[in-house]
């Protein structure tokens, strides 16, 4: 049985002022950006009720962003049908998703990630009839999860992640630590959708080792003698 798109996702997809949101406005790409990517924010009906979202945990052996949680996605190739085509293709390659089962609801303004010099387009999708997904390439992805939205909205699972001068929204559900771009995008979407629950952003937690890149661990340890 096909599940109808929830009202909050329909309302989110129909907004025309996303670019005016503080976070999106703060990360507008500069002119001349050449590296472009897309991510798929795929929501579906949760078997226990409500909705869930597909997230991946990157392989811990990767040099860049090991163990970090992200949406399926990657670089836009010349043969892709734009950002939507890239997001669906990457999701198929990473988690075995059948693109034909996804209803693409909207694409949002590009967000600029200065560390990687990427302009990333978030693609919003609804999965009316979820089928099993999982790790396709262990060299890239450690695990694939469908995380219930109510657990992400739970104020007890929300806090501010801290690393040096960095401060940003974060989530922790069981042993899944979500921070950085993924957490900021989720937090912004929940705000825009009007479903966010007030949480205490003065609660701070440092990044755990398992989500740090090698250079971050060296920086965190300080200079060696």
Automatic annotation (TrEMBL):
Domain of life of the native organism: Bacteria
Signal peptide feature range: none
Boundaries of every Nudix hydrolase domain copy: 33-169
Cofactor names: Mn(2+); Mg(2+)
Keywords: Hydrolase, Magnesium, Manganese, Metal-binding
Name under which the protein is recorded: CoA pyrophosphatase
